[in-house]
Model the fold of this input.
Amino acid sequence: MTDTTRRLAPKRIAQDIQALNSLRAIANYAPMRPEASSQTLQQAYQAMRQSQQDEVVMEATFKATRDRARAAEWEFHNAVLAMKQSVVGQFGPNSDEIQAIGYTRATMRKRSSRKKSLATGEDLSQ
Done:
């Protein structure tokens, strides 16, 4: 059974279009199946072309919308960073206000402990 959920390869579509165009050269074509009639084939071809054109337009619209959303996200992020810097500048690094915006108060940070340096010349392989 054919998987109709995947797209057809452009090569296959080009072959189908070539077959449709070649059908015009057959003067006495009279199919028994209604879905194989020249008129039905022409309508299906036009519907495919219109859908492909709509897809291109919608894809361009989607890309433009995605770019606008990305720019708006960065604008918002930069505004939040500016707000956080303003809060630190206005209230100081040890205030309740900076804790409210997600920063750690200066007095609550762990101080880094210094590691004792080894005397030069000691052998560490023992």
